[in-house]
Amino acid sequence: MSSTPSQAASGSSHPYEDNSIIEGLVLPLAGHCFHCGDPVPQPPFHAEILGKSREMCCMGCQLASQSIVEAGLEQYYLDRSEINRTASLPTQLNRLEVYDHDEIKSQFVYAQDGLSVAELSVNNLRCAACTWLIESRLDELDGIRQCQVNLTSQRMRVIWDESKLPISRILAVINEIGYEAKPYRQDTHEAMLARHNNQMILRLGIAALGSMQAMMYAVALYFGEYSDMLVFQRDFLRWVSLFVSTPVFFYAAIPFFTSAWSAIRARQVNMDVPVSVALIITFFASLYATVTGQGETYYDSVSMFVFFLLAGRYIEHNARLKAATMANDLVVVEPVLVQKIAENKAAARQILQQLEQNVLTQVSIEKKNTDTSDPVDDLGVSDANLQSTASVMPNFMQSMDANVYQITSQIAQDWQQTRHQSSAMSQPDSLEEKQMMTAHSLQVGDIIMIEAGSEIISDGILLSPTATVSQSLLTGEGDLILKTQGDYIVGGAQNDSQPFEMLVTALPEDSQIGLIDRLMNRAMSEKPKLAQQADKLARWFVARILVLSVLVFVGWYIVEPSQAIWATVAVLVATCPCALSLATPIALTVATNRLASYGFLTTRGHTLQTLAEITHVAFDKTGTLTYGKPNLLNIELTASHNEIVLNCTDKDRNLTTSAQKDEVLAIAAALEVGSRHPIAHALLTAAYQLHLPATQNLQHYPAGGVEAMIDGILYRIGHIDFALDGINNTKSGQDLSIDLEMHRASSAVVLSCQRNQSASWQALACFYFNDKVRDSAKAMLDTLKASNIEAVMLTGDPSHQALVMAQNLGMQYAYNGLSPTDKVNHIQQLQAKGAVVLMVGDGINDAPVLAAADVSTSIAGAADLAQVSSDSIILNGQIEAITAAKRIADKAERIIKQNFRWALIYNGVVLIPAALGYVPPWLAAIGMSLSSLFVVLNALRLKRA
After folding, report:
1. d(CA 523, CA 595)
2. Judging by beta carbons within 10 Å of its beta carbon (0-12, 13-18, 19+), is residue 818 exposed, middle or buried?
3. Cβ–Cβ < 8 Å for 610, 591
4. How far apart are CA 273 and CA 543, in angstroms?
5. To which H or E segment does residue 878 belong?
6. Helices (H), 117-271
7. Cβ of 82: how many Cβ atoms within 10 Å?
8. Beta-strand (E) ranges in 827-884?
9. How far is it, in rounded angstroms, from Cα 942 to Cα 909?
10. How far is it between the farthest Cα atoms of the chain?
11. Nearest alpha-carbon partner for 674 in 361, 409, 388, 464
């Protein structure tokens, strides 16, 4: 790489900035890394070296250079004569050890079930045997729990015990067997793939030129045999052919040799082993014939062989690259720079402590109620039934209750008051120490400014009075959402209004958009059983081919020694199972990304394969077959409500029925402030113009409702048993009768009160709600029925209205009033009869049944992603994506089987003529390349599924 002498900045105190000292410093080209010379992303990483901020291409180079500086070894940069990726570092440093630093690890390593998980980019992967080689080698290390490499996306996911094994050792082992692994980052990963693509083009060009020239001379040699060519003319053409074939063999074909050597060193075989053996035998046999003047030369076959192999792999590589980058388009790279204006660590700590306390309380209560029914799925108003564990970082949307909301609102108000006081004192800069910083440098408790039109980099709390955001990337819904001061904002949403300020409550990698990316990475790295079987079969094939080639050589050497080498080469090349190794992964990748375009995100590797086998689909009701957004239909007052409604002891009050309903609605809405349950949202929406009374001692009860004190009177809202404390209302003289069918409602909650501890609970009103059935539900169920797939509804809603809804949708089997355990039992009964069940739930309350099903999916919004335990997620809320997923899974299965049949038939058919000497080496190369291309192009048909 060309270089220029540096120009030191004058006026600096840094000892290395004297021109006489660093005059000979070698600098990279503009836009390239100061440490290794690779192109830098935009914006680049930076490191302070020799008194100046230098651009770096990745965090590895950044940490390596910082380690050099901290070790007092800056002289290394003055002594080096060139900049390249293979230049040796100071002997005192090991570059890979920088990845053990906590600051670096936090950027690409995260915790999962007490273990460490890392997403890595891997270079130089060529076939399925390469992925198997890495996986098998790492599995030998103590501490590795799981390692999965994805050939299509050139990425890997490793899970390990960090107390036994540092990440640097994992990277070192990968490097030792001939591959390069770095922490995954979308922009640098794409740059790596682009660099690899450019190298392939260069090698392909050299092979093309060499094969054309070698073929020209070969034609002359072929004709010369029939026209009595003189010996010195023949020898001249052979030496010229050697000259043009040498760069093809020693440069263009190097990837085959290095890959084969890496496999052999690891005492394994991959696809490049038979290819390399064939190339080496052919080239050196031709070289021997050229030097001795005896025998035939096949330089044209060597060059054409390399060219066709490289051409096939180049097309295949670009097809895989295109398939792999489809998923990257769904998740944007978070903005790298953000404006920090202040920090409030204490406020963030206060919020997170309260959230964690909520989670612990919820888990404790849920353990006491594991054997009880869970009607809150449809009738309750509490957030306490959300699936969570104390070991998981609390998520706002699953545990943010009124207590947390009061804390966040107060923090936001205090912030605004502080700003106003600062402005009044004419000291606007005293509060805001604005600085631009990288996303990875953000800490919980930082207060940042989100500019209009930009992506929200992390989860947090809105400090500004209002904000309008779009969560289309997370939910697929383009409607703008109005947020008010103290509200929760998810990372990955977009600011569609004026700039606003927010308090960071989660690191960017722990935000909702970061979680989506992790789920996609997990799905792309996991291998279904079909892919594992294909890899195993391909390895079996390679070993047998090597044995068979030896037998062919021995047989031909006995019959016709002059044909022994070329028949052996033809067998090695023609029967190489490249197409077999590509049959499954390329189809799965294209199908997975096609599903993602429908908003159907697979989070497990087995999802596609199992979807193609399903016989039954079980649905939850609320939020699945319905929208999960109930509307308030009617308020039914009881005869005794006038005596106990807020301040209604005055008998002379003569309120209209409408005013009386407004009073009980205001009380009900006041109890629901801070709750994120759909019914709570419906009540708060209906009461948005009413004055809500203040509440005290507010408590949430799982599978029940909410209780709070208002002006000395204790109120409850929830399902009837909870509201009346388990008393049968007809026996206690209550005049309340819940009739969902008469009101055409799907659910109802009761508001009750207790005037003193000795008094009984009295019903004030019943609120009726209707949760609309999804518009596409009927068509989706009809499509499933036409495909001979049985639909079943399993719901916790105890009302008869749930069964009526199922009947209207044409569902033959529907069960209501089920607890989570009951749902699991129904799934297991179906499985015992041989059914393969897809469970569709809301991602929150259905974790046990989602786990029990053969394959599962959740219709999840941004609030649900952190607790999703399913194998796939529907991000856009379109339930018809289930039928699209089934259609694509079926087509993917057909294409994989077609690819398998083609690969096996081709290898079986070509074997006999190749062994009998009817297939020359160059034709064998064409056949193998065309076989691989057929598999790739056939898989790409899934893009139109």
Report:
1. 12
2. buried
3. no
4. 10
5. none
6. 128-139, 167-176, 186-224, 231-247, 254-265
7. 11
8. 837-841, 855-859, 872-874
9. 27
10. 129
11. 409
Cα–Cα dist 854/850, whole Å: 9
Which three-class secondary structure state does DSSP give residue 897? helix
Q: How many CB atoms lie within 10 A of CB 553?
A: 19
Contact predicate 585/152, CB 8 Å: yes
Closest C-alpha to 859, from 485, 597, 850, 851: 850
**Of the spans 95-109, 273-287, 374-388, 607-621, which averages the highest pLDDT?**
607-621
Residue environment code for 468-493, b if the CB has 16+ CB neighbours within 10 A, otherwise e: ebbbbbbbbbeeebebebbbbbbbbb
For the ranges 187-201, 583-597, 678-692, which has the lowest average pLDDT? 187-201
pLDDT at residue 85 in the model: 63
* 377 token code pair: 């799925």
Read off the tokens for 595.
């599903």
What single letter denotes the amino acid at residue 83?
I
Instruction: Provide the 3-class DSSP secondary structure of residue 181.
Output: strand
What are the distances in angstroms from CA 678 to CA 49, 804, 826, 836, 903? 56, 21, 27, 32, 53
Question: Buried b vs exposed e over 668-706: b needs ≥16 C-beta within 10 Å?
Answer: bbbbbbbbbbbbbbbbbebbeeeebbebeebbbbbbbbb
Segment 321-372, tens digit of pLDDT: 665 554 454 444 444 567 888 888 787 777 777 766 665 655 554 444 444 3
CA distances from 454 to 64, 333, 446, 512, 945 (A): 32, 12, 18, 16, 34
Q: Which of 799, 850, 790 is nearest to 820 (CA)?
A: 850
Question: Which two tokens mark 586?
Answer: 């390329």
Burial of 328 (0-12, 13-18, 19+ CB in 10 A): middle
| Distance set, CA 816 to CA 195, 366, 619, 739, 813 (Å) | 58, 21, 11, 17, 10
Residue type, 899: N
Positive or negative, the CA dihedral 463, 464, 466, 468 is negative
Amino acid at 318: N
Contacts of 682 (CB under 8 A, 6+ apart): 629, 630, 631, 632, 769
* pLDDT value of residue 397: 46
Distances (CA, A) of 316 to 94, 320, 585, 914, 931: 36, 6, 12, 25, 11
Instruction: Count Cα neighbours of 409 within 13 Å in the Cβ-side half-sphere.
Output: 11
Whether cis (ω within 30° of 0) applies to the bond prior to 43 is yes
Which pair of tokens denotes residue 914? 């190749």
